Description:
The structure is a homodimer.
Chain A: E1 9-13, H1 24-32, E2 36-41, E3 48-49, H2 51-54, E4 61-63, H3 66-70, E5 76-79, H4 92-101, E6 105-108, H5 118-127, E7 131-133, E8 154-160, H6 167-180, E9 185-188, H7 192-198, H8 212-226, E10 229-232, H9 244-254, E11 258-264, H10 285-297, E12 303-310, H11 316-330, E13 334-335, H12 337-340, H13 343-353
Parallel strand pairs in A: 1-2, 1-5, 2-4, 5-6, 6-7, 8-10, 8-11, 9-10, 11-12, 12-13
Antiparallel strand pairs in A: 3-4
Helix pairs in contact in A: 1-7, 4-5, 8-9
Amino acid sequence: MDPHATPRRLAILAEGEFRPHSGKTARGVIRYGRDVIVAVIDSTRAPGNVSDDMGEAYDIPIVASLDEALRRRPDTLLIGIAPTGGRLPEAWRLAILHAIDQGLDVHSGLHTMLGDDPEFAAAARARGVVIVDFRRAPDRTETAVGRRHLPGKKVILTVGTDCAIGKMSVALELTRAAQAAGLAGVFVPTGQTGMMIAGWGVAVDRVISDFLNGTCEWLVEQGEALGDWVFVEGQGSLDHPAYSSVTLGLIHGTTPHAMVMVHRVGLEQHDFEHLPDASFPLQPLPEFIRLHEQVARLVAPSLVAAVALNTSTLGEAQARRVIAETADLTGLPTDDPYRFGGERLMDALRARLS
Amino acid sequence: MDPHATPRRLAILAEGEFRPHSGKTARGVIRYGRDVIVAVIDSTRAPGNVSDDMGEAYDIPIVASLDEALRRRPDTLLIGIAPTGGRLPEAWRLAILHAIDQGLDVHSGLHTMLGDDPEFAAAARARGVVIVDFRRAPDRTETAVGRRHLPGKKVILTVGTDCAIGKMSVALELTRAAQAAGLAGVFVPTGQTGMMIAGWGVAVDRVISDFLNGTCEWLVEQGEALGDWVFVEGQGSLDHPAYSSVTLGLIHGTTPHAMVMVHRVGLEQHDFEHLPDASFPLQPLPEFIRLHEQVARLVAPSLVAAVALNTSTLGEAQARRVIAETADLTGLPTDDPYRFGGERLMDALRARLS
């Protein structure tokens, strides 16, 4: 992949998923990506406009079908959701084949590698289009080597209390804030949506476990070559029954100078759809923060330097009150960078890491 | 694989590696496996006998070449070392092709999948022999579901202060001790050597990260179907720069009732060959034990119930003294089960978990 490629014209397939607090790939690419979004396909929301949810800046039609989207001349169909387990819903097969037939490239973040599907591969070859599977692991298979950061570089990893609460967005907002402050901020993508946004990276959850820490270490090396303030997208959470090992691979592989703890206000337990009777309650924030520092220190000293709250369920006054309360509770600079911008937390990071 | 398969006649290729504290696959299969070992191939040790290192019970010739080993009528060539990164040393290619040509199956724990090598695959097909890659990940790709243990089952995971210090052996010794006490003890292999010994399992370091916790959870489910006292082979260490994520996947995926902390006496830092200047010191044992309990508890309560020391560098009197000192230091039952048998620690586990 090429971080400097020309912008594309994307149609985003988000069928049945383009709702608030859902469709995080679609929303991430729309908000942070460099490509032109010609349409979002979700028949359950069509006709509509992305600006209804995401604000006036996003005047993008929501259409009911690929055929409607095609009228707006996309060059790429982006698979805009990532179901649990990452498999391709069978109903989408015809739509994807139709897109290929119409000359579109296909970009996918599913676990299922569309490029390995004989039918898709043959169709793409015949039509001369490209299928990009963002989740395909790199051929590189190296364990971590204990690399040290280059002098002058600052590496910040977003960690969190659960999946899908905004770790990628916080890293992106902090990158923006660093750049706005005249610093060489760089975002390091570790998941398929981040890769679609930045045009490079590795979906680390797809890497063979033996090479996970090593791949995270290597991603930071790439990031340091691109800038000075390196913001690594976190994954999962250290207490997640299914994904904690990916989180630890990031903590020990990236050896961040600082971590930013991301939390969604009101979240009290992991949403474990498989086992509705099981209870996996979240840890109290101060203890959870302290444990992150203890665990990180096993490989390299680090600290949680700020808290980023996701206050999307609250009105603004209430959000500001909860932010102040959380700052009191944790003793750490706290804000909602997605909502209010990353400047305050970026200032706190500069003060803490200088 | 089949845990109930007929014993094989193995020639173990351990070229240049069959030294004390090295060749752990060869030593593990010799000590714990159910197969007949006809010879160990290591020209740097030949002519010799395994009993020189491992004691009288192991009267197995060390020979200089595959041809010498073939005179003892093996049916299988087992690749008996696992180099860092897991790749096949080029010098072994000819020996493996020769073994195939002589009608031997090939069993390998390398990261490199020998069965996917066109030359090996064609040769095996032509000769009608089988190549088994123990590190091949299962097709199953499921994230953890938050499974609870069955009533009456006890799950014990070995954890440790470093790689390659005896976590597998401790799990095997405890399994033996449980069985000797009339309990239904079962060993759950999570690495290639354990799989070669027990005839089933998954090399979890080869599993895609997203499915690591889920695979560990599933292995315990298999173990519970085979017995009541389920001893899971640990991997890596929670503070290892390269492998910590695999360790956490085991802790959170198996949700053990108890952990046994394995430590090699005198070990003070991780042996990090890539970066001789880097220092990754081990944690003090009591703090490290406490941290394991804290981290485990993020998903399910657990405790470190015993310490298993590797005292192989000490004389017996000194070993017994260090064991007593470690018991004092940690407040936990301590022994060297590899050297003195697993009975004492097994008794302690029964007392603690009943």
